[in-house]
């Protein structure tokens, strides 16, 4: 198995070795890290993939914890947990192939606090995330993406500040918790999930990150990490085994343990500069490690990497940044060779730069009888025996003190060269975060140098800053760091996103809300009163274990049920196991099903016509039996007279779900169109526009940028709590001219069965010339002419009164569309089913 977390290219390291020795104007600063001693860091990324055999509930033969931290006493603790769900693996083996051969199921990862005696705990910081799939519109085109695996919403919550990606509009906003006191009586159990508002299941092949800072104020408590099969009731722990087995270490090149210190390391750097340092100078540092005990002076140094595990960059590593962890595991005692004396055996693993990460004996380790697991590294050992450390979740503090004796205002830029998506923020001399937010680098497929912090260094002053750097989960370790001195500030750009759209409630069918209790479907109109639905046995059996990750869409006379685990299309190793879409009737009987050649990323219905998108290809069917490939975007439908689609910013409507015609907007034009229940909608920052037909819109302005909305009791609920009166959305007559739907600036009026349209807009539409003369308006289109007497409010042709009345409303002159258009040479047809007047000329 290739270890993605510490993948490092030799070419990158070799480039550094070829730099000739330099004479530095500024004296090198020593890079020596010290760990924050006031507390302990609980770290668990082992077993990195959670297998069926790792579960702690009664669904498995030998339930066990993932990690045991027993009898913790009063102290400060920080906890980092990161895992992926690979419950397709049913044996105690490593991941041999990324490709899954069978389906896994939803799990829940949690932390159990079990008091040995009365215990008081203060929960101070908390973050949780399962990266989600999101849809958005950009320049009129809909895209699907998945949140970064670095779990930046989790980190924004944990750090208590937003995170913005450089050179991007991506921004992550968390929801920091209020400090909470938890009192646990002796023998009682409290689960961390009870305090996580956004807690959810971890779908098969998806990942989870949990961060928590807490203080045991008094008492003694076990703090154990467990994973359980989701039983359909979120946070329910009734099926957890009463006495799960111990969470032993299993060698998969990832680790677990407790570090005797918090998840912060600090290096203090001091420089004195003057005007002699040229702009662009990289300030020197000296690193010390087991391979360079006397120090190695560089202008680019490596962190988040065990020098013993890397054959290329070992001489460039700081090493002192790598925290040491220990893990008590009684099973370790069974791994020693028979000739190893009892007094030389212990039950503690040590994961650091000095030890191997070995556990059970393997033949390549040498003599079986002399075998010592997790022994000290020896000269000649392979890099693979060393611990694959990355210092995930550790906050690096570079405390920089720089004196500028020159006469020029200078700037110091912290730079990172890697492919990983690190978080960086800067504090001033008082410890305040500059700008109030952190930056993230953005994941790259190859190593790239980015400016991550730029600090002002005025002339004739001493400036102090702290640059804070974090490696979040699921990215490669090995960070190349440097400090560059310049005469001008280095621009580090973030910008407001141009993405549009709302975060749709994934548990809304378009008509009602739903949730799952195992394979029992629950429906509700108000999220309070629920009714159960029993699915057909065939469907229930096929979605068992993953039902909560299935999407239910109302079709107007039934439902579409499809897998929704991997809609962003980044799980090619598992998505082929989920390819079937089910068509159910109003009573949830199975009408039909279809298994596509690849994963169905989305599905919808448009005026009774079914659409499914797989791998970017759109399929269409009238009866769910035969499917045709069509070259178009996925449409949407509000269960009304028209379905809609947005293609390259052009909005089109259809009355039959197959033939879509463009909308020409003479007035307000939305950037995109999407449906939510019975409404079409479009959002633009704080503005929300709703429509019945996709042509005429009514809007409201919210207090904040609109992220979600729903209609509840005839009220618009914005972002979960902000209430607005629901705009009056009425059905209006629609005008179509030569095959194009027309959105006039003023809506047509229907009076006594007659449709009126704005005179000026009708003239523009059919290309008629308009002449105003003493209260008479003459419209000329080719040889056809109509004369309007605004005083008498009548229309005539060839001097003959037609009996056609006009209307003036709010200063706008309206004329009957059918008669007036006919006078100007148009034929007019009226479709009663869609309330559409179609003009053809």
TrEMBL record:
Keywords: Signal. Residues 737-837 form the Copper amine oxidase-like N-terminal domain. It comes from the Bacteria. It comes from Candidatus Ornithomonoglobus merdipullorum. InterPro entries: Cu_amine_oxidase-like_N, Mao_N_sf. Pfam families: Cu_amine_oxidN1. The keyword Signal applies. Residues 1-25 form the signal peptide. This is Copper amine oxidase N-terminal domain-containing protein. The keyword ATP-binding does not apply.
